[in-house]
Amino acid sequence: MVVGDIVYIEEGDSIPADIRIIENNNLQTNDFALTGESSPVSKFTHAIKGDVVL
Fold it and tell me: Which three-class secondary structure state does DSSP give residue 46?
């Protein structure tokens, strides 16, 4: 993958890299491997403010 690639994902897919969500329909992810959070996490298309810790 390179900057600017468009990735289509479906239920059950593993997301291959950090991506920017440009369109979704009630998207929730399992972030357990990254954060230890076992509950589904809702994802949104709005921009993240510059002062948010990623």
Answer: coil
